[in-house]
Design a protein that fits this description.
With 178 residues, the chain is mostly helical. The chain has a single domain, classed as Fumarate Reductase Cytochrome B subunit, CATH 1.20.950. It is built from four helices and two strands, in the order αααββα. A two-stranded antiparallel ribbon has the order 1-2. The N and C termini lie close together (9 Å). The relative contact order is 0.12. The protein binds protoporphyrin IX containing FE (2 copies). One protoporphyrin IX containing FE is lined by residues 14, 18, 21-22, 25-26, 69, 75, 77, 88, 92, 95, 154, 157-158, 161, 172-173, 176.
């Protein structure tokens, strides 16, 4: 298996990025919900810190993946149905867009509330806005709504994979696996 994509298969770099991102994104998604329900205290603070650090790491991986997609070929879609092909393309591109909105709104929200974001205690992401409660509230709403849109796309995406694998019985899922 090559590192790069070919017209009928995903390469190792795309596969690794796809599955590492999928696991980390879902983890951060559940963490986001759990941490919000906790009482104020050290556990809540550490989980918030971890969620934000992971979010910034994910932002980096998303940009990397987008660049890799742009400079690489994308394997040919296996369905002959034009509508399915269009929906698939739409969902795939929307993933990148919605994930950029999720991460940037999280970053803006954090800096509007608390200034630069400490990433795993290693470095700081600069504040991209001034401290401001109104901006903070708007960014928080965008973060939460965009996360819901993201997760509905994930659900559609998983159903599509299952449909390809068990009903159409084509190679769609296999060629994204190892
Ligand atoms: C990469 C993907 C990310 C995902 C999937 C994600 C997901 C979530 C979810 C599900 C929540 C809970 C929403 C709710 O309570 O209804 C949340 C809250 C939050 N997220 Fe993220 N997030 C991400 C990135 C980030 C980033 C990059 C930052 C900041 C640097 C961030 C900062 C926050 C903060 C501060 C909250 C708490 C909101 C509050 O309850 O006050 N998130 N996130
Ligand atoms: C957070 C979760 C996920 C995200 C954000 C995501 C995102 C994406 C994106 C953007 C693509 C397009 C290919 C590319 O640009 O490199 C893709 C392809 C694919 N994903 Fe996911 N994915 C996720 C989870 C999953 C899961 C859980 C499965 C399996 C059950 C899955 C199965 C596939 C398959 C089979 C393809 C190839 C589709 C094709 O060849 O047309 N993904 N995914």
């Amino acid at each position: 298996m090559g590192l790069k994509n070919s017209p009928d298969n995903y390469g190792l770099i795309s596969k690794n990025l796809h599955w590492i991102l999928a696991v980390l994104l879902l983890l951060n998604f559940f963490l986001g919900f759990i941490m919000g329900d906790l009482e104020r205290g050290p556990l809540r603070s550490s989980l918030f810190h971890f969620h934000k650090s992971m979010g910034i790491l994910l932002l980096g991986l998303i940009i990397l993946r987008l660049l890799w997609r742009v400079i690489n070929t994308t394997p040919i879609h296996l369905s002959n149905n034009q509508l399915i092909k269009r929906i698939s393309k739409f969902v795939h591109y929307s993933f990148y867009l919605i994930l950029l909105i999720v991460t940037f709104s999280g970053w803006i929200y954090s800096t509007a509330r608390a200034g630069p974001v400490d990433v795993f205690g290693l470095f700081y992401m600069p504040a991209i806005v001034e401290k401001n409660d109104v901006i903070g509230q708007i960014a928080k709403d965008i973060h939460i709504y965009s996360v819901y849109i993201f997760i509905s796309f994930v659900i559609i995406h998983i159903f599509a994979s299952i449909y390809h694998h068990f009903f159409l019985k084509d190679k769609t899922l296999k060629r994204m696996w190892y």
